[in-house]
Amino acid sequence: MSDAIYPVPQEWSANAKIDGARYEALYAEAANDPDSFWRREARRLDWIKPFTKVKNTSFNEADFGIKWFEDGELNVAANCIDRHLAERADEVAIIWEPDSPGAERRITYRELHEEVSRLANALKANGVGKGDRVTIYLPMIPHAAFAMLACARIGAIHSVVFGGFSPDSLGGRIEDCDSKLVITADEGLRGGKRVPLKANVDEALKNCGSVSKVLVVRHTGGTIAMQDGRDIWYDEAIAAASPDCPAEPMNAEDPLFILYTSGSTGKPKGVLHTSGGYLVWASMTHEYVFDYRPGDIFWCAADVGWVTGHTYVVYGALANGATTVMFEGVPNHPDFSRFWQIVDKYQVNIFYGAPTALRALMREGDEWVKKTSRKSLRLLGSVGEPINPEAWEWYYHVVGEERCPIVDTWWQTETGGTMMTPLPGATPLKPGSAAIPMFGVKPQIVDADGKVLDGATDGNLCITDSWPGQMRTVWGDHERFFQTYFTTYPGKYFTGDGCRRDADGYYWITGRVDDVINVSGHRMGTAEIESALVAHAKVAEAAVVGMPHPLKGQGIYAYVTLNAHEEPTEELRRELIQWVRHEIGPIATPDVIQFAPALPKTRSGKIMRRILRKIAEDDIGNLGDISTLADPSVVDHLLEHRQLVA
Ligand code: 6R9
User: Fold this and answer.
1) What region holds the Acetyl-coenzyme A synthetase N-terminal domain (predicted)?
2) For residue 261, which atom of ligand 1 is closest to its CA?
3) Does 100 fall in a domain?
4) Is the dihedral of CA 355, 360, 361, 362 positive or negative?
């Protein structure tokens, strides 16, 4: 942890939307009089039918429920598009930068309105109606935003699946929510490599019966198979559709989207967000956290397959009438200047990225950054995982030239938008700290027994009251929602994150305290990787833990016990790595596979993950008590054969 502190620059405190005093006043109002605070904030949206009730929430078992603005009606797409037409129809809504520099695309709000309306009509023509689920499996191309907004326009619920997931993972997500229709592209492109999206969809659909239509965007022009009666070219479907599609009035609590995310147990959960509260939260946090001003060019570098892309590439940015940059590619293609060249090309004012990308670029040296101007940048943001102070300092000094505050935003798929962050005009910065809670967020740190810890302390992070952007349920399993988040510490939302609060009241997220690991800012459930491994015919048992990784933040360390008579060979190791990539997707590629004749277990047969974590972390002076193990000698073998990563 770093002791450095960077005061709020004078220009920022003088001109920012929220300065220190205003933060205090608004925080207090949201905490003490949420009705008044949120009634005002919700006016940032256009309501078809105004709400009369603001907040109706309880985290307690007896009357558990989360509702915001519950009798109001609105349409999310109309809020992101139509209401801007009067003033900014010809301003650019989306700037699209392709994988390789070349034919970029600028889409005005007027064009966005037409694209989305046509697609909405094409969805209807293909049998999609209010409440139906649509799976979106696309690269980072504008059609991803069109697709999300077209669903929102007609009240269909979208489920975006990241293009890096395998056919199996995609199929599981389609099946879980019974999607009627899939929107995909022939292929994706990342760093010059082709991703066989349509072929993956074909594979996934072999085992899912619910999908009757697949809309296919022609993107690379690569050769693909089209199935008669099921597959439809996107361009043909929208050419045949009318550009006039009224926006469906939706209740504030009607679902907007499902987004699957990994937890500590079981298969990924379909996190459900609804319309009114989510959009108020997305719009408010986008404005205050990034000090967003009309005319700003805003670039969130996350993929729309993750929640960050949902809330800040699409919904928050467009609700605020911003120009949002969508980048198809990766930071190192064609070279390591790519990000900063894009910043210069479009005169980006606000850049929001992930620590894993910054660490990878930092390693390549400052020259790649310094040969670009970056004078347009006013503010930098970080999200997805804890940012280590070295990467923070590099971001601040080299990328931002000490001119741009960094907002280190802590939040989760479940929270809908930013929960803790410094506000650039209000909060002195501490490298690596997510600083202070957003309006309406009441954090609490508890110990393992749930005892509330005050003052400077260290423990597990809970949130004690609801905020509008909170997830409402797990799709199809409301009981799992309650069990997962509200029973560890009854009456509180448990985040799964560890957290320290310092003497100044700053919060420092220390990482997951459950069996979730964060690889390059992507959440992976260790249980998912374990079940992929044991699905291999030669594997008897597997245990997966996180390990420190210099670029990815955390890497995946898998202990594998083979079936009797199987030989632990290099070839099998490679085969298992490929196997996991195939089962889940490249983001789950194990960094280490250690063959272990046995795993350390208690006498009751429980795997002692604590020991496995220590070995993976190379913290072996500190294994703790191993006397309760059924067979303590297992540990000697593990230690002898552990794999150290460079
Ligand atoms: C938005 C997003 C959520 C988990 C979260 C935490 C980690 C996210 C962070 C951070 C420290 C930050 N995390 N932002 N940790 N500082 N600024 O990433 O959602 O994919 O659901 O991941 O990511 O561990 O619990 P999601």
Assistant:
1) 23-80
2) 21
3) no
4) positive
- Is there a contact between 247 and 77 (Cβ–Cβ < 8 Å)? yes
How many folded domains does the chain comprise?
A: 3
Q: How far is the CA of 511 from the centre of ligand 1 (A)?
A: 8
pLDDT number for residue 645: 66
Do 144 and 70 reside in the same domain of the chain? Answer: no
Angle at 241 between CA 236 and CA 243, to 5 degrees: 125
Q: Answer whether residue 93 is part of any domain.
A: no
ipTM: 1.00
State which residues form the domain around 545: 520-641
Do 279 and 373 fall into the same domain? yes
Nearest CA to ligand 1 atom 8: 384
Give the three-state DSSP class for 105.
strand
344 and 469 both lie in a single domain: yes
For residues 412 and 439, the answer to whether their CB atoms sit within 8 Å is no
Whether residue 466 sits in one domain with residue 318: yes
Neighbours of 471 (CB within 10 A): 26
* Cα separation, 333 vs 315, whole angstroms: 27
Q: Is the per-residue pLDDT at 220 higher than 80? A: yes
Name the closest-CA residue to atom 16, ligand 1: 386
Helix axes 570-583, 167-176, angle to 10 degrees: 30
Q: List, for residues 14-56, the tens digit of each pLDDT value.
A: 999 999 999 999 999 999 999 999 999 999 999 999 999 999 9
Query: pLDDT class for 608, splitting at 50, 70, 90?
Result: confident
CA 422 – CA 438 distance, rounded (Å) = 9
Instruction: Tell me, yes or no, whether 599 and 475 share the same domain.
Output: no
Binding-site residues, ligand 1, Cβ < 6 A: 261, 306-308, 382-386, 408-413, 434, 495-497, 509, 511-512, 518, 523
| Segment 78-90 mean pLDDT | 98
pLDDT digits (tens, 9 = 90+) for 97-132: 999 999 999 999 999 999 999 999 999 999 999 999
Has this prediction a pTM greater than 0.90? yes
Predicted confidence (pLDDT) per residue in 149-202, tens digit: 999 999 999 999 999 999 999 999 999 999 999 999 999 999 999 999 999 999
Please tell me the distance between residue 319's alpha carbon and the centre of ligand 1 in angstroms.
23
For residue 623, what pLDDT is reported? Answer: 84
The verdict on residue 607 lying in a domain is: yes
In this structure, the answer to whether residues 173 and 285 fall within a common structural domain is no
What local confidence, expressed as pLDDT, does residue 603 receive? 82
Point out the domain boundary residue: 494, 511, 528.
511
| Amino acid symbol at 313 | V
- In Å, how far are 138, 310, 390 from 301, measured between CA atoms? 16, 11, 21
98 falls within a domain: no
- Identify which of 272, 411, 507 to mutate to test ligand 1's pocket (most ligand atoms within 8 A of the CB): 411
CA 478 to ligand 1 centroid distance, Å: 23
Of the three residues 208, 230, 249, the one that is the final residue of a domain is 249
Binding-site residues: 190-193, 308, 332, 384-386, 408-413, 497, 512, 520, 523, 534, 536, 539, 581
Token representation of residue 60:
């307690």
The DSSP element (H or E) to which 381 belongs, if any, is: strand 379-383
Report the CATH number at residue 304.
3.40.50.12780
**Cα-to-centroid distance, 283 and ligand 1 (Å):** 19
**Residue 66 and residue 203 in one domain:** no
End-to-end, the C-alpha distance of the chain in Å comes to 22
